[in-house]
Amino acid sequence: MIVSAFALLAVMQQAQQQPTQMQTPPSPIARLVVHPQDRTMIAGDTLRLRVEALDASGRPVPNAQIRFAQAGAGFEGVVEADGLIRSGSTGVMPVGIAAVVPGAAPVVERVQIRMVPGPAARVEVQPANSRLAVGQRVRLAGRAFSAAGDERQDRIAYRSSNPAVARVNEQGQLVAVAPGQARVTATAGSATIAVPVTVVAATIASVQITPSSREARTGDVIRFGASPRDAAGRAVTGLTPTWSVSPGNGQVDAEGAFVGYEPGEYVVTANYGNRSADAVVRLTARDVRRPLTVVGRLPRTAFNTEEVWVHPNGRFAYLGTGGGGDRLYAIDISNPARPTITDSLVVDARRVNDLMTTPDGRFLVFTREGASTRRNGIVIASLEDPARPKPIAEFTEGVTAGVHSTFVYQQPKHGTHVYLTNNGTGALHILDISDPYKPREVAQWRT
Hints:
The protein contains one helix and 39 strands. It is mainly beta.
């Protein structure tokens, strides 16, 4: 028998919190044995759970009904009622299992499914190529990915084809030793990539960094540049400095973009091996705090509160619901002290999380998750009357596992598009809703 995830979770909660005065007979089930015992699967794959319900003597209990439900991790995959696990991404998925014998209390158990990346299929290294002066050092940052694009935690092995020119250690620290050419190979499992390295003579006599000093606020991004020159004052081109910052309460990237996290004084350094230059940055607190006063409230007790979106006219807002929520509310906020519900739109869903209007306020897009028919996706509603949204279209193709987040973006040249996330695959679907009555998919983006 197939039951919804919410029904199963309710059974599990009742089993855990059953009042002592209830006289439900104890279950003949003494323990559940879940197979496979190694519950690790590759992201994007499927795994079927099997459960044995055994009595105190270790014998199977006849007529035991086993039910499965997702007990969390709503984005990482799907749990079918028959125990089939569909992994959409890496992570940990909790699964609730209930074994029921008619007339007896249920026996519940919770297991976790680890969803891991597949084998390393490619390696990326930054910087992808290096031109260094003798004595210069640079840290190579290697990352390994599966064929599906999931990042792995492999330790990257580095090797230089010519250590007399460019030497690299196991942490990826590259040192320019002498003029010449070399290739640094980065390997993870069977995946490998070769990075070309060119080392030139150290002819730099001076380095100028701009700006040489700067005052800013925490969180500001300051972009530095460096100009190396030879002894005759001529610019030395084709070299990229190694950037660093101290103390360690901020960061600077390979392009010289610096950001500090705490007030204080920082020193940003551009290094070319035997020559370097420093710039001093003084940061003050961002001081973005402002007073906030609550002027009105609209308590709701039927469902969890999800996201809210204010209509461009500023007089109406739209509120999603979760925790079994099957509706969104239209709210009159023209008097902020007394927000009032003007209408609700009920759909087949157990969560209406994200919602957003088009910039002109004529249409509303909202998401669906947990539909009884598994036809989730998005719904488009007309806001001809902003107080009373009317559904005019939906899009479910390829996103039946559910959509949690969506964003509406409009450009005069390209029209109006919806960017939505697929709960089942993790993909980003791009829909053209220039004709909101006929939404159509124009692209997908996968990581």
